[in-house]
Amino acid sequence: MASNSEVQLPRVVPVKNKAPNPIWTTAEQLFREARDRHVLEVIRRPKQRINDEDELGEYRLRTREGFEDKIGRARDDLGEWKKYARWEESQNDFVRARRVWERALQVDCRDHSLWVGYAEFEMRNKFIDHARNVWDWAVQLLPRVDQLWYKYIHMEHMLGNVAAARQIYERWMKWAPDESIWLSYITFEHKYKETNQARQIYERFVQCHPTVTAWLKYAEFEMTNKQINQERSVYERAVEKLSEDEEADKLFETERARCTIYEYALNHIPKGRAEELYRKFTAFEKRCGGGEEIGDVIAAKKRFEYEDEVRKNPMSYDAWFDYIRLEESVKDNKERVRDVYERAIANVPPADEKRYWARYLYLWIEYALYEELEARDMETTREVYRRCLKLISHKRFSFGKIWIMVANFELRQMNLNGARKILGNAIGMAPKGKVFVKYIEMEMRMGNLDRCRKLYDKYLEWAPDSSFAWKKYAEFEQHVCQTQRARAVFELGIGQKVLDVPEDLWRAYIEFETSQGEYERVRALYERLLERTQHLRVWIRYAQFEASLVSKEEEGGGGGKEEDEDCIQQKKLCVARARRVFERALEYFRTTGANLREERALLLEGWLKIEKSFGSELGDVSLVQAKWPKTLKKRRPIFEIGPVRPEAAAYEEYIDYIFPEEAQSHATNSKILEVAYKWKKQKTAE
What we know:
One of its GO terms (cellular component) is precatalytic spliceosome. α7 (128-141) runs antiparallel to α8 (146-158), α19 (354-374) packs antiparallel against α20 (378-391) and α20 (378-391) packs antiparallel against α21 (400-412). It contains 33 helices and two strands. It is 72% helix and 3% strand.
């Protein structure tokens, strides 16, 4: 029995390999593998839909139990108390919510955020009396928390209960708060025009806080109310009580010296005698003032100079502009800036001529921009523009820029009808091309195509010789994909007997037809244009057009063998057409007269460039080189108007061209001249 009860231990197996394992396994690796193999699914509570009162009661009971468990485990967690109270408020159970807030205050009544939340709960649900009770408890328990007082006063102020707000301020002042709170009380009284009440508070303020800053605030208050004697009395009392204070030098009446004595003297003493006074004023500001005060002195001196200059010459608009820039550089100076602008625009030019009014009208423009951008007064801006337009004599001259600026202003104010009215008045009273363009551009953005056409009709009725107007009208029709309308507009335009820049309109018409792929129409247009003018540029552009079709044929090729052959034939045809144009041009310049030699040479240069652009397969440079002229440098006399002696005449050098067909006659003439020169030289030697 004894032998059977013995525990049989396993046999110890010796370790065969005591070397370290090449692969190490860490605890981090084991955790990562476990996480990767067993991905935990996030289990979410299914959404619950409440259908009757019983389910709602169960939901509320379950939620309350949850909140009670949380605050039971962590009683000092005020965040959970706030969530609990807000949830009860969301259930419209205000009694329970109020009970939760009071239980939270029993936990920590020194946390002012609980009092603020409790009072805001009462205010939010319009329990005003309850809110007053909460605020009373809060400020009585925590009188040094400024937020509670401010919130309490703000509530009474929003209710319009000024007397109650004043009583709260009085209760607060008994605790001798900081200077900012006293100033807040004074601002409150000043808002309701209670000047005497504010003065009494200042008296208590300087008694509670007898500092230099407090006395200076008191003196500034009296100065704002224009009580000079009271201000002086405040300074005297402050100096008497704070004579040993380190900041007592601030109590001296630098403001009264600056604003009253010096400025009065500078305004009443002539400029010739004021230089020394300005020097002393500047020294005074350097000693008693800061950088801003010194800048004010410099501005005052410049102001004095500008006043003298505009008084001597009120029509010097440059001086007015400099004066205005000075006033605009001073901060919080709107009234003075407006005054200078009004004085400047009162100097109307004496003559109704545009050259006199151009500079003057920029005063109005600057005035309107200042009111809009700096003063932000849109009604005043509109009034400035209205007065400016009323002042201009539109029957004699007008300024399209003014009308356009007024229209842009109305557009910035989202007043589309006002902008239309302004531009319509401009067209009716003093039509300008820029005004038409602006009006059409505005209607184009609005998508009113019929309005645009009517405006273009009025534009052309006013300026039928304007190539720009015809061109823009046609481009408008092209933009809205009305090709036939655009072509009709171009035809009407080039059919006008008089055009200011006809070449621009012809060029635009040709480019339009080229963009439409109507090459036969383009050729017809060039032929019609050549009937009117045989200018060199027309011939060259005609030939360049024919040459450009070669590259278009190359882009269209690339098919089968037959298509390639057709493409080659078409390219050769285009090259032949371009050469034919050049040959016609050369024939015209050759038969017209010898004065067009330079045009012939330039035409050959253009032809040579195009032949080179064709390449070796299609181009033939030898055609041009056979017609290439020789250049000779010659001299010719310069004749002035009036009798000039032949020996006193001046000469200039110029380049002449000898074309191949003229080479024989030129050689004969050269030999005759050479023989004559030798004979004259021989006679001179004898």
